[in-house]
Specification:
By secondary structure, this protein is of the alpha+beta class. The chain has three domains: 91 residues; 59 residues, SH3 type barrels (Roll), CATH 2.30.30.60; 98 residues, Alpha-Beta Plaits, CATH 3.30.70.100. Helix content is 49%, strand content 21%. It is built from eight helices and ten strands. The strands form three sheets. Strands 4-3-2-1-5 form a five-stranded antiparallel β-sheet. Strands 6-8-7 form a three-stranded antiparallel β-sheet. It has a two-stranded antiparallel sheet with strand order 9-10. Strand 7 and strand 8 form a beta hairpin. Helix 2 runs antiparallel to helix 3 and helix 7 runs antiparallel to helix 8. The protein starts with a helix and ends with a strand. 13% of the residues are buried.
């Protein structure tokens, strides 16, 4: 019994397994300690996130190199077995392989990065993590109107970058074109109405107007795209019911709902200050009473009110 236990303890394979176990535990402890330390010394959220991801990736690399060194003498015998099993593994794990390939494409192809607002796999929201297999998104919309978070965290397989279009709201050009439509009643001073709208939208987008122009110039230099108008634009269409003004402007992708709220709030105040020269139009139908209906009989004997 003692001889068998001694042989087992001195067996090279057992020694390697023990070495691997101890080594992997030490690597995991060091990686965890390094990630915790980074959270204490790095205050910037984006830098801290990237540093932690780098430490985790470095830990995987060190673990792989460690395993290769420990089992270097057995690698030659494993080559044939891995070659035979490779076809079956590739078929069984094709979705996993596609997700890993998607991760490589995201990392090298600049599809999106952490912090971007995207629509991926039918899910719209902000990217909060990009893993080897899945992208984690803080979802916007659904039962919540506008571009506000709804509280759900969604993990989407990276393979979707090959299956569906990837919409990036904040990639090379971190702004969106947005519009509001304002109906003005006929008889109002349309010149004054246009001036009010132009002043309002110019004031609201002034804080990032120059940044948007600079970003768009970079887009024009980088891609074959027309030099579109970035400044606010107010247009007028006269339809059957009212004069319809459309206000088009560039807005930061995170401030679309807030900007629209401020525009409408200031517009109502500005219309009130015109003293009736400008009035908003609306389609309102109100039935105040049902008219009395009288029926004349065929023999001319008279008429009687009919029930409404």
């Amino acid at each position: 019994m003692e001889t068998t236990l001694r042989d087992w303890l001195y067996d090279p394979t057992v020694a390697r397994l023990v070495t691997v176990g101890v080594g992997l535990v030490l690597i995991a402890v060091f990686v965890r300690a390094a990630r915790t330390s980074l959270g204490r010394y790095i205050r910037d959220t984006d830098t801290r996130y990237r540093a932690r991801k780098f430490v985790s990736f470095l830990g995987y690399v060190v673990a792989f190199v460690f395993l290769t060194v420990v089992f270097r003498s057995q690698l030659g015998g494993l080559t044939v077995a891995l070659g035979v099993a490779g076809a079956g593994i590739a078929f069984a794990l094709q979705e996993v392989i596609a997700s890993v390939a998607g991760w490589v494409a995201v990392a090298l192809g600049n599809f999106y990065k952490v912090g971007d607002r995207v629509q991926l796999g039918g899910i719209r929201g902000d990217v909060i993590d990009v893993g080897v297999l899945r992208t984690t998104i803080m979802e916007c919309g659904q039962w919540v109107s506008g571009d506000l978070y709804n509280g759900r965290i969604v993990r989407v397989a990276n393979s979707f970058v090959f299956k569906e279009p990837v919409f990036n709201y904040s990639g090379d050009f971190p702004f969106l074109w947005d519009e509001i439509t304002v109906p003005i009643r006929y008889g109002s001073d349309h010149r004054l109405a246009r001036q009010i709208l132009e002043n309002l939208v110019r004031d609201e987008v002034a804080e990032y107007a120059e940044t948007a122009k600079t970003s768009w110039r970079e887009m024009v230099r980088k891609y074959r795209i027309e030099d579109a108008r970035v400044d606010p634009l107010v247009t007028l269409v006269a339809n059957d019911n009212w004069m319809e003004f459309t206000v088009r402007y560039v807005v930061d992708y995170t401030r679309r709902r807030i900007t629209k709220d401020r525009l409408f709030s200031r517009l109502l105040d500005a219309v009130d200050e015109t003293g009736g020269r400008v009035a908003l139009a609306s389609a309102t139908n109100e039935i105040v009473a049902v008219p009395e209906l009288r029926v004349r009989l065929a023999d001319g004997s008279g008429s009687a009110p009919a029930a409404p």
